[in-house]
Amino acid sequence: MRIVGIDLGTTNSLIAYMDGQTPRVIAGRGDRAMVPSVVAMTDNGLIVGDPAKEHLVRNPARTVYSVKRFMGKGLADVADELKYFPYTLSEQGGVIRLKIGEKSFSPPQISAMILKELKQRAEAFLHEEITKAVITVPAYFNDSQRQATKDAGMIAGLDVVRIINEPTAASLAYGLQQRTQGTIAVYDLGGGTFDISILKLKDGIFEVLSTNGNTHLGGDDFDHVVAEVILKDIRATHSLTLEKYDDAMQTVRLEAERTKIRLSDEQTATAVIELPDGKGTYRKVFTRDQLEAITGDLIERTLAPCRRALKDAGLQTSDIDEIVLVGGSTRMPLVRQRVQELFDRAPHSELNPDEVVALGAAVQAGILSGDTQGMLLLDVTPLSLGIETMGGVMSTLIRRNTTIPSSAKEMFTTYVDGQTGVDIHILQGERELAKDSRSLARFRLKMPPLPAGVPRIEVTFLIDANGILNVTARDMRSGQSQSIEVKPSYGLSDEEVEQMIGDSFKFAAEDITARKLIEARLDAGALIAATEKSLGQGGHLIATDEIAAIRAALAALAAARDGADPRAIRARMADIEQAAHHLTATLMDDSLKQALQNKKLSELP
Amino acid sequence: MDQTQNTSNKRTELQMARSMCWHCQSEVTGEYYCGQCVKVQPLSKEMDYFTCLGLPRLLAIDTAALEAKYYELSRTFHPDFFQSKTEPEQQISLGNSALLNTAYHMLKDPVQRAEYLLKLEAGSAKDIRNSPPADLFEEILELQEDLEAFRSASGDAKETDQYRSKLLVDRAQLEQRRQDMDTKLAGLFTKWDTIQNRAPQPDALRPQKDDVLKEMRELLSNRTYLRNILNDVVAAMEGGHADRRH
């Protein structure tokens, strides 16, 4: 059974597969492999990717981008970055909900829409149904964020056979291609997150020594500081407060991104923004120096995690043999410069930083399916796992940077005679106090009603190869295992995921119609334009009643295009092709004749 | 102590007499797989980390060989290779891998290795010290006073610098003490290995073994105490959180 590899990114997503022993990304229309991680919910259904990106400005309140930043999070976690998000957010059961139109969606549901788009793309390309996938996540993602990603896969109808870390995925693709041995550092600065992983590569084993990062630092943040400068400038020069206009805010954000990208290749770039209410056009020239001055602090914030990762691996910068850059943001010259200074070594960039993670996911898929042999990835858990003990202190069970799978056992008993349960609070993080750590989940351990201290329940905390926690309990006196219901602090319950899977099937029919409609409209537009052109070129060559018939068919198609029935559009398109058949043939004859006339007789065969 | 010996004898016997295959109930003859149905077998819950990695109970370890064995066993047990197998096999692979990972990392680090050996041979790893060891008492007291002064120092830069340089001197002194401890520890490692090589049976030369273990336990406790203090100093000077281990 084929397993595909998916890079579910903050700004762009990709899908890749193994072509024999070579990982390849799958391109869509127009040969673009990257699918912008943008979802637009229009009146005519769901749109994902490039066409959805256009809706960011046209219909900002119903277009979702960077949803990855919300995965596995509560509302309070994202409070300070909502400036550019025009839709209403709420929270239910520790999970953010986005209100789009009349409906409410959890971040895994939105991510599932992107996954479905990728799935369909792969199915069209490979001519087979795709049901299994490896999906990548930032290495520094916590348990809730990983679980949310797995939920997204399930909602999209995918069996997520493995969650792997983005920098380690990149190392697989890199190692496969370069046949490297030694110690490498993968510096991964993506659209929304930063990761650093240090690995030892030896005889096909990819052993992660340490990892660190910041799940809230990436290209989006660079865009925001550039956008801030533009907004402030427009306020000063045009007395316009753009924050009031959702669409203009998206225009500014996208133009800030474009400007930033251009400054990676050029010394200056001009941001151009059409102002609302007919206030004219705003222009501002940015120099690369300016960009570096305002983004320098953000880049600086990636260096401390690098040092911590080195320290945890017990290594010096001089022990690192190679540095691999991953993620679109590593195209910025200042990022490269700072990384080079830190490690005192020029970083590698042979591989396309946008594609390498998806390629690595495909390699891992090949390992899991047994098609790719000789390689094995040994990854670590990025954050310490523990439980809350008396006095609100976190007692660590599994330390950060422990190789996974990993397990820890803890024995629990009672303090009061006849006590029937013990509440357990699972935490993740590096802080000493429970209140400073991330709450993962809670559960109640059932105890047999016996004198205090007599019950002995052994709880096993196991972090699996996905970096996701599994908890099991066993009564040591009876030897019976106990089923426990772990309630995630920031996650969907199993019932909710089930419900969302059901909903997604229900909406699937609507989605397919919506997709067909969009494609039919695009094709209709192209046919109308082409027919108009033919009429202009060859109208004089055909009879007037033929022209009238074509014009009538064009009008009918234009009317159908405004409707919502893709089959009607296709039918009117067929009418045009028939009506314009003679015209097309005549034009071809004519152009052939002209071509011949332009040549001398001697040149003819 | 006697009790520990008995259980450790019993443990060896259990491992020798391999049990039945969980799947086909035939006697397991292969090392990790059933000879009959070729299903992976769970590593015994009683198995110690030395046995897991095929090593004698010695403290000097060839780390390259340890790594090679770890990689080899990872290729045997890792869940990646059980993706298409049955649920019980996947669970066994998960459990075996988790045990292997813990075993490898425990044995790779010399201090953790010694602590683990203590636990195996003498029941518990080490005592948690709450007061400084006698021979370090004065130095640690001085350091703690200086640390307190540094922490409560007013914003005056000159004053802070003064305390800082004092702390640096204290720290260097204690770092030296720690290095001395490590040298002493290495000596105890050799001592243990010599006795163990001469008499690998658990009961043999027991009094001599216990003497070494007792000395080792004392030293490891002092070392941990000292390291936590040093970490506090580093954290205070860097303004971060102390990174306490063990």
Outline the fold blueprint.
The complex is a heterodimer of chains A (about 600) and B (about 250).
Chain A (H helix, E strand, L loop, with lengths): L2 E6 L3 E8 L2 E4 L9 E2 L1 E5 L2 E4 L1 H9 L4 E3 L22 E5 L2 E6 L2 E3 L1 H20 L5 E6 L5 H13 L3 E7 H13 L3 E8 L4 E9 L2 E10 L4 H20 L7 H17 L5 E7 L6 E7 H13 L2 H11 L8 E5 L6 H11 L12 H14 L6 E3 L1 E2 L3 E5 L3 E6 L3 E2 L2 E7 L8 E8 L9 E9 L10 E7 L5 E7 L5 E2 L4 E2 L5 H45 L5 H19 L3 H14 L1 H17 L8
Chain B lengths: L1 H15 L32 H4 L10 H15 L9 H22 L1 H13 L14 H15 L5 H42 L7 H33 L8
Helix pairs in contact in B: 3-4, 4-5, 5-8, 6-7, 6-8, 7-8
Q: State the CATH topology of the largest domain in chain A.
A: Nucleotidyltransferase, domain 5
CATH uppermost class of the largest domain in chain B:
Mainly Alpha
Q: Give the termini separation of chain A.
A: 55 Å
Topology, number of strands of chain A = 30
Helix content of chain B: 55-70%
Q: What is the total tally of β strands of chain B?
A: 0
CATH superfamily of the largest domain in chain B: DnaJ domain
Radius of gyration of chain B (CA) equals 23 Å
Q: Residue share in helices of chain A?
A: 25-40%
Amino-to-carboxy terminus distance of chain B: 24 Å
The total number of structural domains of chain A is 4
What is the H level of CATH, i.e. the homologous superfamily of the largest domain in chain A?
ATPase, nucleotide binding domain
| CATH architecture field of the largest domain in chain A | 2-Layer Sandwich
Number of domains of chain B: 2
Helix segment tally of chain A: 14
Let me know the average pLDDT of chain A: 89
Strand pairing plus helix content of chain B: what structural class? mainly alpha
CATH architecture of the largest domain in chain B: Orthogonal Bundle
Low-confidence stretches of chain A: none
Estimate the global geometry of chain A from the Cα principal axes. globular
Q: Main sheet of chain A, how many strands, which sense, barrel?
A: 6 strands, mixed
